[in-house]
Design goal:
Elements lengths: L1 H26 L19 E8 L2 E6 L2 H18 L5 E2 L4 E8 L6 H11 L3 E9 L2 E6 L2 H12 L5 H6 L3 H5 L6 E9 L3 E8 L7 H10 L1 E8 L6 H7 L4 H6 L15 E8 L4 E13 L3 E10 L3 E5 L4 E12 L2 E14 L4 E8 L13 E2 L2 E4 L2 E3 L2 E3 L2 E4 L3 E5 L4 E9 L4 E7 L4 E11 L6 E2 L4 E5 L10 E7 L2 E3 L7
Parallel strand pairs: 12-16
Antiparallel strand pairs: 1-2, 1-4, 3-5, 5-6, 5-8, 7-11, 9-10, 11-14, 13-16, 14-15, 17-22, 18-21, 19-20, 21-28, 22-27, 23-24, 23-26, 24-25, 25-27, 25-28, 28-29
């Protein structure tokens, strides 16, 4: 009879445990101390005990389950009284599985001693995530929010961030020369959740900032471009050449990189992007364009300004999007022209310059008088005429021709130019202070070739002008108009 009773008791216990386990599976809850129990048959002679499990660790059996729950609560309260730095809690799974028994074989003191050994009391924290990426755990939600604020303030003035809660800011328009921040958001939504973590796992605001600024290491692909080498690619992504070869197993150190070839690389990318929306009102200069008109009234190579260029001015209202401090989009919301632009117009000559002279020689200076004639002078023969006292000191080509010489003679002409008119005539221009043509250049009649001066052997500022016909000097006055 006793053996039958024992078997019956064992079957009841097994059935009770099975029933209670099913109840347990369907009743698990997160973030709370979980207590599971089941009802047994209220048979006469039976009493109920509770098997205590902490994170699947069996601690023993108790008669009164409330003593276990209260003990945990007391331990947490004592920890909070002893240390007010943080708020403490426990997130271990507590299971109290009831069993109907004839004999109560329990030891509450032993269970509580085991509970003290296994119980872990940690900090009640706030976990901050951006999208599906966890940044870390903070002692409070306030600290997590402070970290976000400080990260945003890397790219936005603190005052602007603080003012964003004011609806008037979002409706404001910028003054001239001013930009205003309308909104700041993160590329991933920030979410906060409660958690219980060891104190060592807590993240300070300063540590969070370092983590946010550094970013997170991600695998990327680099497309080879002109001029790339293993060294330059490794340097760009803060890698060594050995590391680059390691993560590209099919790549050898002597391989020739091909443009468009893709290599695996790793790089730090922002943990989350700070996106700033601004509006700006500013004046912008409209630069005038240089336009050219052709004219056959000017020689090729000659130019004349027909219209002076003048910059315009416009008032521009811009919408700006910045990501991590860099402008990625600009949209013109409104534009008003304050001053019209006026393009510069230059007339360019198309008339072909003939290197052959006309035979009609023009006066080679701007006005002036003859201060010394051709012929005998001071016991020698003066090969040309001297022209002095012009209205300005420009020296002009007497006829079309090709510049044959641009040179200097210290004891004679000083700076001088010879033009070959390719018709048997040449002209020489001496004592110039400067020259503005070069050998081989074709010049039309009347072109400025230099400036009157007193270089070489000279008694004062004047032009020494010679005309040479078929290799012999003649009196310039015989051909000058």
């Amino acid at each position: 009879m006793m053996q039958g009773m024992k078997k019956l008791n064992i079957n009841i216990i097994q059935a009770s445990i099975l029933l209670f386990m099913l109840v347990l599976i369907n009743s698990l809850m997160t973030s709370e101390i979980q207590v599971v129990y089941a009802k047994g048959d209220d048979d006469a002679g039976f009493s109920t005990i509770y098997h205590v499990y902490l994170d699947d660790e069996y601690l023993g059996a108790v008669k009164d389950q409330s003593l276990v729950e209260q003990h945990i609560a007391d331990r947490i309260e004592a920890k909070n009284r002893a240390d007010d730095t943080y708020t403490y809690g426990n997130d271990q799974e507590l299971l109290l599985i009831p069993e109907r028994v004839f004999s109560e074989n329990v030891n509450i003191d032993q269970v509580l001693d085991r509970l003290d050994q296994e119980l872990v009391i940690d900090v009640q924290a706030t976990t901050l995530k951006f999208g599906d990426k966890t940044l870390g755990h903070f002692a409070s939600k306030k600290d997590a929010e402070k970290a976000i604020f400080k990260y945003k303030s890397l790219y936005v003035d603190k005052e602007d961030l603080e003012n964003l809660s004011d609806s008037k800011v979002k409706d404001a328009e910028p003054e001239m020369g001013e930009s205003i921040v309308l909104d700041v958001e993160l590329s991933e939504e920030a979410s906060f959740s409660k958690s219980i973590v060891p104190e060592d796992d807590l993240l300070s605001v300063k540590e969070a900032m370092k983590k946010l600024e550094k970013g997170t290491l991600e695998e990327l692909t680099h497309e080879v471009k002109q001029g790339d080498s293993l060294y330059s690619i490794a340097l760009e992504y803060d890698l060594t050449e050995d590391k680059l070869l390691e993560i590209n197993e099919d790549l050898e150190v002597d391989d020739l990189l091909q443009i468009g070839q893709e290599l695996n690389v790793t790089d730090y990318v922002p943990f989350v992007d700070v996106i700033v929306y601004e509006e700006e009102l500013k004046k912008e200069k409209i630069k005038f364009e240089k336009k050219v008109e052709k004219s056959d009234k000017l020689y090729r190579g000659e130019t004349k300004k027909k219209q002076k260029g003048r910059n315009g001015k416009t008032k521009v209202h811009l919408g700006i999007k910045k990501v991590n401090g860099k402008t990625v989009e600009e949209e013109v919301l409104d534009e008003e022209v304050l001053k019209e632009v006026q393009d510069e117009i230059i007339i360019e000559g198309t008339k072909v310059i003939s290197s052959k002279g006309t035979g009609d020689f023009a006066w080679p200076a701007v006005d002036g008088i003859i201060s010394s004639n051709y012929g005998p002078r001071w016991g020698s023969r003066h090969k040309g005429i001297d022209i002095a006292r012009p209205s300005n000191r420009k020296i002009l080509a007497a006829d079309n021709g090709t510049v044959e010489a641009v040179s200097y003679n210290e004891n004679g002409y000083g700076n001088y130019i010879i033009i070959n008119h390719n018709n048997g005539y040449k002209t020489l221009y001496g004592h110039l202070s400067s020259t503005s043509v070069s050998v081989g250049q074709t010049v039309p009649q009347g072109t400025k070739i230099g400036v009157m001066g007193t270089t070489g052997r000279s008694t004062g500022i004047h032009l020494h002008f010679e005309v040479i016909k078929n290799g012999a000097n003649i009196d310039p006055l015989d051909v000058l108009n």
